[in-house]
């Protein structure tokens, strides 16, 4: 039996490893134990109504930069590439020199790259930079030398000179012309048609005059949203990023552990858990629901681990107000009985190994 002693000691050490193995259990005491290496890198924060209120007050996604709201479109000014239609009443030979049977654009006047256009009995005039009314006044005054009291009307058939650029997760990307009706941000987004399945609507970027403005389209449905007061101007660029690099990860004792696409800043903890079928009733611990949020520089600031006890029905109301962020990890720990069952499942194979070892020693002793 002496040779059975080392085997028993080995099994004992194995059992000891099983007993102290944390498995999937997140020990909150170890997270915040003063003086431990983890204490300087991990901050455990309970999810409470006060925390939700503080984060809501610190959320500035609903605030539109004042300079964007201050911009108000002026009257449209003609530019190179615009197609102008000039009507001189009672003088069809001037209005439609190509003939009345031609399409209306055939009788339009294209503003040249240098900003000028030619019109009979008027000559070459500088059209770029003028409003429609200013151009009409110039043409009328020059035609008055050859036509008695000319009645002139000017309109733009095709707007080309002023435009915004759409890129990213729009169904229609490229140039979007600005016409003589002010173009709002929301109208431009509507014309571009957002690809809702792939777009990160919380990350829209408006580039203007060398500056970039981050706009959260999720804020549109929030109280006191000012997004509908933003107007675009010539040269603006709208980039809507894709959401394939932004995800929420749900792990542990949930019914369907997987990643979720982060589609907007309105995603909350309750929605995320509901998307994976909620917590496993048989194995999960409602008091061990964590949201692990990383940081850009771990050397300078700790990782935040938010915790909520969902055993209380009222806690779900708090979870519904707790907003998730891209790359958050939602982890649900196992219940005590689950950890015990897993421990037992590890012990029994080892106990069988121990019994087998003792039986071998007995057999060897009997043979001797």
TrEMBL record:
PROSITE patterns: PROKAR_LIPOPROTEIN. GO terms for molecular function: polysaccharide transmembrane transporter activity; porin activity. The keyword Ribonucleoprotein does not apply. One of its GO terms (cellular component) is cell outer membrane. Keywords: Cell outer membrane, Ion transport, Lipoprotein, Membrane, Palmitate, Polysaccharide transport, Porin, Signal, Sugar transport, Transmembrane, Transmembrane beta strand, Transport. Residues 72-156 form the Polysaccharide export protein N-terminal domain. It is found in: Cell outer membrane. Residues 337-363 form the Outer-membrane lipoprotein Wza C-terminal domain. The keyword Transport applies. InterPro entries: Poly_export, Poly_export_N, SLBB_dom, Wza_C. It is a multi-pass membrane protein. Its main location: membrane. Residues 162-239, 246-332 form the SLBB domain. One of its GO terms (biological process) is monoatomic ion transport. Belongs to the BexD/CtrA/VexA family. This is Capsular biosynthesis protein.
């Amino acid at each position: 039996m002496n040779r059975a002693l080392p085997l028993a000691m080995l099994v004992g050490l194995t059992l000891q490893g099983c007993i102290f193995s944390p498995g999937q259990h997140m020990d909150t005491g170890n997270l915040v134990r003063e003086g431990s290496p983890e204490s300087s890198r991990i901050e455990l924060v309970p999810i409470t109504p006060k925390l939700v209120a503080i984060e809501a007050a610190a959320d500035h996604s609903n605030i539109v930069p004042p300079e964007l709201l201050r911009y108000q479109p002026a009257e449209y000014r003609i530019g190179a590439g615009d197609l102008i239609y000039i009507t001189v009443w009672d003088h069809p030979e001037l209005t439609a020199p190509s003939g009345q049977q031609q399409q209306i654009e055939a009788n339009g006047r294209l503003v040249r790259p240098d900003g000028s256009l030619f019109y009979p009995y008027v000559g070459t005039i500088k059209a770029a930079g003028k409003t429609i009314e200013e151009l009409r006044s110039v043409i009328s005054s020059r035609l008055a030398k050859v036509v008695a009291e000319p009645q002139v009307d000017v309109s733009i058939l095709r707007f080309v000179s002023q435009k915004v650029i759409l890129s990213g997760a729009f169904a229609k990307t490229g140039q979007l012309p600005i016409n003589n009706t002010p173009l709002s941000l929301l109208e431009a987004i509507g014309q571009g048609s957002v690809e809702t399945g792939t777009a990160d609507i919380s990350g829209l970027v408006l580039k203007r005059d060398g500056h970039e403005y981050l706009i959260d389209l999720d804020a549109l449905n929030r109280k006191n949203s000012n997004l509908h007061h933003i107007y675009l101007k010539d040269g603006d660029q709208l980039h809507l990023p894709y959401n394939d690099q932004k995800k929420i990860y749900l792990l542990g004792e949930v019914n369907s552990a997987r990643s979720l696409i982060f589609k907007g800043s309105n995603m909350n903890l309750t929605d995320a858990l509901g998307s994976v079928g909620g917590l496993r009733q048989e194995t999960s611990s409602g008091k061990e629901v964590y949201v692990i949020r990383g940081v850009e520089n771990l050397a300078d600031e700790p990782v935040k681990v938010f915790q909520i006890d969902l055993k209380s029905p009222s806690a779900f109301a708090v979870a519904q107000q707790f907003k998730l962020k891209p790359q958050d990890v939602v982890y649900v720990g196992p219940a005590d009985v689950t950890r015990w069952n897993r421990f037992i499942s590890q012990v029994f194979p080892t106990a069988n190994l121990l019994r087998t070892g003792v039986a071998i020693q007995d057999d060897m002793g009997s043979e001797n």
